[in-house]
Amino acid sequence: LSFLSHSIDGDLFLFSKSDSSLYYTGSLKMSEMTFNESIRYISRDYHFSSFGAFIWFSTLFRISKCLIFVKLIHIVVGVWSSLLLFDIGSYLMPRRYAYMASLTFSLASFTAVFHTVFLKETLFVFLIIAAFHAFYKFLNNKNVLYLVIVFLLTFLVVFFRVPVSIMLLFTFVLTLLSMYARSVIAFVLGVV
Length: 192
Prior knowledge:
By secondary structure, this protein is mainly α. The protein has helices at about 1-10, 20-30, 35-45, 50-65, 65-90, 95-105, 110-115, 120-140, 145-155, 160-180, 180-190. The chain contains 11 helices and no strands.
C-alpha cells in the first residue's frame, strides 16, 4: 500500500497524510534538538496524546532519518507483538489455536498497513500486548518484577491514549483485587 500511495501522490505516507505528515515533520525537527529541547517543543506545539509518537519517531530519526528504516523497525515491533500474542494465547488455549490467532493478527490487512505507514499504532498496540503479556507472566510466576513491568507499560500507554491507559490500569487492578480480595479485606480489617 505504501508503494501504491507513492505512485499516486509521490510520498510514502499512504492515503491519509494529516497525522503522518505531522509526526514526520515534528519528529524530524525533534531529532535535531536535545532531549529537553524536544520535550519543550512538543509540549508547546502538540497534544499530549501524541507525545509518544513524537518521542518514538524522533528517537528512530536520531539513528537514521530513512523512512524505510522506520518501517523496518515497525515490522520488527509487529513481529514481536505477534510473538507475545502467541505466548498469551498459549496460556489461554491450545498452542495450535494460539498460533492461528497470532498468525491472523500478523496477516490482518490493518496490522500490515500500520507497520508500513508513519503512524503510532504499531508501538501503541505493542505496548498494550506487552502489558497483557507481562500480566499473564505475573499471574503464572507470581514474580513482582512482571507486575512492575505491567504498570510501567500501562504508564507508557498514557503518551499514546490516556483513556486506554486508564482502562488498562482499571483492568489490571480489578483483576488483582478480585484474585486477592480475601487477603486485602483481611489486611484492611486488621488495620482498622
